[in-house]
Design a protein that fits this description.
By secondary structure, the protein is an alpha/beta fold. Helix content is about 40%, strand content about 15%. Helix 3 packs parallel to helix 9, helix 6 packs parallel to helix 7 and helix 10 runs parallel beside helix 12. The structure holds glutamine. The site of glutamine (GLN) has 6 residues, from helix 1.
Length: about 375
C-alpha cells in the first residue's frame, strides 16, 4: 500500500483524532513481546471458567449459531431479571428493561451515545477505568472528572458543584483501578445529588460479585437511584469469560428504549452460543459467588503481602481484582511500568492511563491470575528489583 496514503483530506473524524489507544491493552502487547507475566490487563486464567458453563457454550454451537433477537435471548434476559430481583431486590421487566450487549463496554457506549447530547456534562471519578473517556468523547459530551486519588472518597462539595453542570454521572462500583467500594452513605449522597440535579446515572458494576467487605451495597439498592440508573454489567468477570463479550444493561423502560436503538444498529446481538451458556452461568448455585470472592481474597492478600515484601506500597482493595501500588524513587509511572516489564519480567499498568490528563506516581497490578502465576511474578520482582 502507498504510504502516506493518497488521500489529501484530513484522515480521522474530529471525534477520534487525538484519542489515545488503550494503555491497558498496550501493556498486554508489551508483556507478550518481552515474555513478561501479565499482571496488567484484568484477564483471568483459562481454568477459572466453570466447566459446565464452558460445556454449555460448546453444546450451543451445534444448535444456536444464528442471531438472537437484538435485545438478547429471551430465556437469558429472564434469568438475568430473576437474578437481579433476587440479588438486589429490584425488578426489571425482561421484555423491555433488560438488553444483552456485546460486552459491558458496548453497554456503556450504547448508553452514552443514546442519552448524552453534544456538550452534556458527564461526571466520573478519577482515577477512572479508561474507556469512559472515549465513550463520552464518542457522544460529544463534556468530560467532568472528579479526583478521588487522596483517600478514595467522594467529596460532597465537589460533587454538588460538578452536578450543577452535568447531565450524567458514571459510577464504577466496585471501582477499577483502585478496588474501592463506595460506602452506603456515599451512595446515598450520589442518590440525593443525582435526584436534586436530575442526573441520569450510569453504573458499571462488572465487579459486583468480587467484593471483600460487608459494607457493599449496589447503587440500585439505594433509595431513588434505580429509577434514574442504567446498570451496565455482564458475564466477563463473574464467570471468567472476558473473551465471550456478553454484557447487559438494565434500566427503566424509557432509558432502555433509547439505548436499544444504538445497540440494535451497532452489534445486532451478542454472540448467541455464549448467551445460551449465560443461562447456565446465571443458574449456578449461590456458593459459586461466595467462593469466587473468597478465592480472589486469598490472591489479593498474597499479592499485597508479596508487593510489600519487595519494597512496594500497595493499597489493599475491598473489591474487584486490582491493586493500586506506589513505588519508591522518582521514575515516572510509564517508565516504571516499562522497566518492570523489561527488567523484572512482570507487567502492570501505569497509573496515568486512569486519568484524563497528567501523570501518576503509581501502577496497577491485577490479581486476576492464579496463585502459581502470582507467586512466580512475586519471585521475579524479588530477584530483579531495580527500585
Ligand atoms: N477491564 C480489564 C482491565 O481493566 C480489561 C479491559 C481492557 O482490555 N481494557 O484490565
Amino acid at each position: 500500500m502507498p504510504n502516506p496514503p493518497s488521500i489529501s483530506r484530513p484522515i480521522g473524524s474530529e471525534r477520534v483524532t487525538g484519542m489515545r489507544e488503550s494503555v491497558i491493552r498496550e501493556m498486554t502487547r508489551e508483556a507478550h513481546k518481552h515474555d513478561a507475566i501479565n499482571l496488567s490487563q484484568g484477564i483471568p486464567d483459562e481454568d477459572e471458567t466453570p466447566a459446565r458453563v464452558k460445556q454449555a457454550a460448546k453444546d450451543a454451537i451445534d444448535t444456536s449459531s444464528q442471531y438472537t433477537i437484538t435485545w438478547g435471548l429471551p430465556e437469558f434476559r429472564q434469568v438475568i431479571a430473576d437474578q437481579y430481583a433476587d440479588w438486589k431486590g429490584v425488578s426489571y421487566d425482561s421484555e423491555t428493561e433488560v438488553t444483552v450487549t456485546s460486552g459491558t463496554s458496548e453497554a456503556i457506549v450504547s448508553t452514552l451515545l443514546s442519552l448524552c447530547d453534544p456538550g452534556d456534562g458527564v461526571i466520573y471519578f478519577e482515577p477512572t477505568y479508561e474507556s469512559y473517556i472515549p465513550a463520552v468523547q464518542f457522544a460529544g459530551g463534556t468530560l467532568i472528572p472528579l479526583d478521588i486519588t487522596d483517600g478514595l472518597e467522594i467529596d460532597p462539595d465537589a460533587l454538588q458543584a460538578a452536578a450543577e453542570d452535568a447531565s450524567i454521572l458514571i459510577l464504577n462500583h466496585p471501582h477499577n483501578p483502585t478496588g474501592n467500594v463506595f460506602t452506603p452513605s456515599e451512595l446515598e449522597l450520589v442518590a440525593d445529588i443525582a435526584t436534586a440535579e436530575d442526573l441520569i446515572v450510569v453504573t458499571d458494576e462488572i465487579y459486583e460479585h468480587i467484593v471483600y467487605t460487608d459494607d457493599y451495597v449496589s447503587p440500585v439498592e439505594v433509595d431513588g437511584l434505580a429509577e434514574r440508573t442504567v446498570v451496565c454489567t455482564g458475564m466477563s468477570k463473574t464467570y471468567s469469560v472476558t473473551g465471550w463479550r456478553v454484557g447487559f444493561a438494565l434500566a427503566p423502560e424509557p432509558l432502555s428504549a433509547e439505548l436499544r436503538k444504538v445497540h440494535d444498529y451497532t452489534s445486532i446481538c451478542a454472540p448467541t452460543p455464549f448467551q445460551n451458556a449465560g443461562v447456565e452461568a446465571l443458574s449456578l448455585p449461590d456458593d459459586y459467588y461466595a467462593d469466587l470472592s473468597a478465592s480472589y481474597e486469598r490472591r489479593r492478600d498474597k499479592l499485597y503481602d508479596g508487593l510489600r515484601d519487595v519494597g512496594l506500597d500497595p493499597v489493599k482493595p475491598d473489591g474487584a481484582y486490582y491493586m493500586l501500588t506506589r513505588y519508591p524513587g522518582d521514575l515516572d509511572d510509564t517508565e516504571f511500568a516499562l522497566r518492570l516489564i523489561r527488567e523484572a519480567g512482570v507487567a502492570a499498568v501505569p497509573g496515568s492511563s486512569f486519568y484524563t490528563e497528567g501523570t501518576a506516581d503509581w501502577v496497577r497490578f491485577t490479581f486476576s491470575r492464579n496463585e502459581a502465576t502470582i507467586d512466580e511474578a512475586l519471585d521475579r520482582l524479588a530477584q530483579n528489583r531495580f527500585w
